[in-house]
Amino acid sequence: MSSTTTEQIRNRLDTLWKVVLSSATDEQLEQDNVIPDSLLKAHNIRLSRHTFTADYETNSSYNPPILFCSRAPRLMRETPINPQDFDENCPVGDKALKYPNYVAPPAGVINIYHTRWCPTKRTVSATKYLEKWALNGFPRRLPPGVVDMATNCDIQWVGVPHPIYPDSRGFHRSWPVTNEWESRIYECGHMLEQTDFPHVILITHHSCNGHEGSIMQGELAAIITAMRNRADQPLTLAQDDAGDK
């Protein structure tokens, strides 16, 4: 990729990043902080349903291609959760496996965002459960020598400091309470099966409801922030063209 094209991509992503996080966009949001179709069209953003069963060849044939290489379903089938592996002396035991049913708040709750029915609290709970189910935290029948699903799938947590954090605005937002979000960030190993994967994995929870066929501001903001920050991320010394970004 030429330096001119690279710079154009960076500028494009930076412009989108500023637009999505702007006060002007805040004023255009629909119910549940959904980005209006008119704003998506104005910036040539398309929403498409991802097919998780598609293989790499199928994904790469699309225009533009779907670059994320999904893990084989057999990894989950061959390493199921095994409740018997819980420590019998653990006070919570296999209760940790049970996903708590959501109890709807009574009608007429005042200032719900400051009560135990706050939507953000519920989504935080769901996010943590999903993270434990997919990565680690639940005992699984793992092959000898494998520590957890994160190791099995070569998924690494992105901590601080990390070059993908030149600006975290977009990954997190703690105001207003009716439109909050926070992302847990992971990435695949830098070199996996001799192929470079620049992907970022985001587990993001929100303070509002999602809807089929639409995208919330927090969802789009996290995605564009990851793309924008990755595009501006400095190369490591082990990579070629170390003098460039």
Automatic annotation (TrEMBL):
Protein name stated in the entry: Uncharacterized protein
